[in-house]
From TrEMBL, chains A, B:
Cleaved signal peptide residues: none
Protein name, UniProt field: Putative transcriptional regulator (GntR family)
Residues that span the membrane, as ranges: none
UniProt domain HTH gntR-type: residue ranges: 1-69
Family matches, as CDD domains: AAT_like, WHTH_GntR
Length: 466, 466
């Protein structure tokens, strides 16, 4: 690329990422030359080239302006990610596209046969007999009242005291968070995320074109000093987290951190979104920010994708009464309604005695899988960051002699999909980390394949070892 | 309100509608005084009051800046609507909240018992026997391939020639349009809408904070001269329409208008979103913009809410190959997946012989309802704007002696919900119009109630007539 082409490329990147949009003024020739460390004449030539390409126009006395049409919102252009393996959207799509034959050791959901399929089949059959009105009609704006009443009772047991009118059903947890981002954010706002955090939060925030500040996550919640500092420096508007069982670390928020966070959030006049979709896996109650602050500066999100079905989707938003009407308006405007049939099926499963039993058995099965996974991983020198109290995730560090690219490619070859640590974090902090799904790890071939992969990827292995 | 309070109220409105956001500079005292036609000292006093309230701050030499926190995105604050009866979101919510006992003569969907409930129940039961993988797992990003293959074949019959890989399943038609708005729009862009048009388009575009320009709709499509003029004056980026069966008018696009529109859209480098959710009601093929331009500058939207079920929702986007990947990314980032169960159920109904028969019978039933409705309405002096070729809508004009508020309140009292013309249009162009749903009008009591309401609301009625 010549220098002139480099300048054009730079402006093109600005257009693609929508930092420059139609009608906006380009930087002056002089300031761009200084910024890119090129001569003024190089930039002049580049601008002239772009003028003749019809990308920009010159207005006498006031400079150069964009006249190219607006670029569509292409997430991969917003800030191009060099390593495709770390692109959160590529990871999500790879996992969503994976056939049932692969070992999805890196995914965020249970194996199909761990899910309550008989209960689901029965609830579906029962719902097929519902009234024509329920089967055919749009839902009411808030959603099925009996399900919201049930959710309110379940929330009471977590000390989140709300009426059913404070619960808004939606099609999923992700959609719920998106709706809240629309409600509370403007492009350019700042949002705090845990580091590491669920990778799709980053993708979602790209859509909202906000600035993300990462706060280091410790084994009992975010680093409070770093959280304070981020508030002082960046005036964030929102903090999105999982406090019950944290994704990807499996950590649990401590009482003391929860208390400190609630105070900080209140003083900073910001809002926390508590994404609690793993809460049904919990074995002992951990604090919830929404319980502590009484939904004053917090919004609670739930869903059934992890424990009931990811195919019949249903999520919900719990918020203060003052905000419900505005959120309904946004929901009606952007998707009109939600899947009412799913809400009916889920209500039937949840009120059937079998569900509680299923969850109890699931917790025991997960506890066993946790012990086995830790044991098998430690044997091949993969070290859990913490021993989670519950849940499906194990966040692990690899020894330094492992070439992570080789590990990945060996596993991919053998039909095993891993989740690389870096995709959950900012920059390259988690280079040597992996998130394991302990339920998916129970696949009979998994640990043997991983053991071979570790040998193959070790830089210390003797030359004749393969 | 004192003059000072009026200034504060004005600034508060700017904050609520997010036209002023944190960190933005307020207009200078002098310019605001001029704009509101108040004295400079009034504005100075108002600014001082707001300073002490902590809403704004003063920076030496550079003016006053907003320091109030960002207002949430409250749609009803964006541009407050004086008459609640005309607020598109209030209308949608009223219809969604309406119980099955009301006569929803103004709604946009069929009565429950006109829907294929036996076929739906059977398809649900059949789907309950599907593999655990299908019942429990997230869908692939594009969605059920057999359904997309079927849709591609159906689209071929409309001369829209696409591969299944150009079809993206979503949870609804509304969600699909929202996703496209996210992809192609930025706040401040201009979008063309038909006047009148489906009221929820306006609500959706408020969320995207774009400028809406209305183009008069004629009995065979938009007024081409007005469309041209709007392009020249406003450089729109998008045009959203229903070309098959237009909502609310029931009109059909003519070949000649379709051809002219495609040329105009191509020259203006804009995109048309063709929302074709009523297409299964069509009795003879009318032109589709997406067929004419080969999806070059058009995107096609479909859904099954109107003909199969509004409870088990499923919609889809049809677009050129180059855009599919970007739309998948946006879908994954904002809602991760969609309801895969619904896609399976709908596929089973669509491939079952019963569906075609159901639609054929439905069309005959609708044709009858159209004749009856026109006859009954004309008898009470309510004049259809056109006689639609097909569909469920009849767009009608009331005689000038009718007090529309009285008509509404009488009907509401009797459990009949009407859709006022003004809610579909800009300003007060459609003061004397109503949109009727001819299927809902077949309720045995409807025309009698409406006849009484017309008498009650007529300003010519003799004083002793009630």
């Amino acid at each position: 690329m010549t220098k002139i082409e480099q300048v054009i490329h730079y402006v093109d990147q600005q257009l693609k990422s929508r930092r420059l949009t139609p009608g906006m003024r380009l930087p002056s020739v002089r300031s761009l030359a200084k910024q890119l460390n090129f001569s003024v004449s190089t930039v002049v030539n580049a601008y002239e080239r772009m003028l003749s390409m019809g990308l920009i126009e010159s207005r006498a006395g006031s400079g150069f302006f964009v006249c190219a049409p607006l670029e569509p919102l292409i997430l991969s252009h917003i800030e191009p990610i060099q390593d495709q393996n770390l692109d959160p959207l590529k990871i999500s799509r790879q996992l969503l596209e994976a056939s049932s034959f692969l070992i999805k050791a890196g995914c965020g959901w249970l194996p199909d046969d761990w899910m309550p399929h008989e209960a689901l089949r029965k609830a579906i059959r029962d719902t097929s007999k519902d009234s024509v009105f329920e089967l055919m009609n749009y839902s009411s704006p808030l959603g099925l009242s009996s399900l919201r009443e049930l959710l309110a009772r379940r929330l009471h047991t977590k000390d989140i005291n709300v009426t059913p009118e404070q619960i808004l059903l939606t099609d999923s947890g992700s959609y719920s968070i998106d709706l809240i981002c629309r409600f509370l954010l403007k492009p350019g706002d700042t949002v705090l995320l845990d580091d590491p955090c669920y990778f799709n939060f980053r993708a979602l925030l790209k859509v909202h074109q906000v600035k993300v500040i990462s706060v280091r996550y410790t084994p009992d919640g975010p680093d409070i000093e770093a959280f304070k500092q981020a508030i002082i420096e960046h005036h964030p508007r929102l903090y999105i987290t999982n406090s019950g069982i944290h994704n990807p670390t499996g950590a649990t928020l401590s009482q003391s951190k929860a208390h400190q966070l609630v105070s900080l959030i209140e003083h900073a006049n910001m809002v926390v979104v508590e994404d609690d979709i793993f809460s049904d896996f919990e074995t002992s109650a951990s604090p919830r920010l929404s319980a502590l602050d009484g939904l004053k500066n917090s919004i609670y999100i739930g869903s059934f994708s992890k424990t009931l079905s990811a195919s019949l989707r249903c999520g919900y938003i719990v918020t203060k009464s003052e905000w419900i009407d505005y959120l309904i308006d946004l929901k009606v405007a952007t998707s009109f309604s939600h899947n009412n049939f799913s809400a009916h099926v889920l209500y039937k499963i949840l009120t059937h005695g079998g569900y509680r039993k299923h969850i109890e058995q699931l917790k025991i099965r997960l506890a066993d899988a946790m012990i086995i996974s830790i044991h098998r991983l430690e044997k091949i020198r993969i070290q859990p960051w913490i021993r989670p109290k519950a849940g499906i995730f194990l966040w692990c560090e690899l020894p330094t002699d492992i070439n992570i690219q080789k590990l990945m490619s060996y596993c991919t070859e053998k039909g095993v999909i891993l989740a690389l640590g870096n995709s959950f974090g900012e920059a390259h902090t988690f280079q040597n980390f992996l998130r394991f799904n302990i339920a998916q790890c129970m696949h009979p071939d998994f640990f043997n394949i991983l053991e071979d992969a570790m040998q193959y990827a070790s830089m210390n292995r003797p030359l004749n070892s393969l």
